[in-house]
Amino acid sequence: MEIPLNDLLFRNGDVTLHAVAAGPNDGPIVILLHGFPEFWYGWHRQIEPLAAAGFRVIVHDQRGYNLSSKPSGVAAYALTELVSDVIAIADQLGQEKIFLAGHDWGAAVAWSAALLHPQRIAKLVVLNVPHPSVMRKFLSTRPRQFLRSWYMFFFQLPWLPEAVFLRF
Length: 168
Description:
alpha/beta, six-stranded mixed β-sheet, 7 helices
């Protein structure tokens, strides 16, 4: 049985967040956060089983991705801003507590949401990203991990990533 997906829009100030939703409207809310460079579809195989289990599944395109707003300036993409998007969605759904899962970059956002707003997170699921303090420790003490994480630093350079992608 295929569960229908509904398109939704959420607002956080000037930012509009596109989302897909599935599952019963009165089910516990689970928000799934995608990684880089994905969008909501990165979770497409998890939506139906979670909805069938009775959850109201919300998977938004994080700001800067797919159909969501793409605000200008680096500050608009700070973790605190991305976390505020998650909390804005929960607020607009009338939910004091949510289930939150994140993968890759979405996991970093999920960790930050749990650390900044622990009272709002009923359960946290993190895939492929360690706790931020563990990550900091490993990056500073394990050269091998630092080398494996090169891409995180590469994408923070001002113009080089765009130039490389345009070239190839």
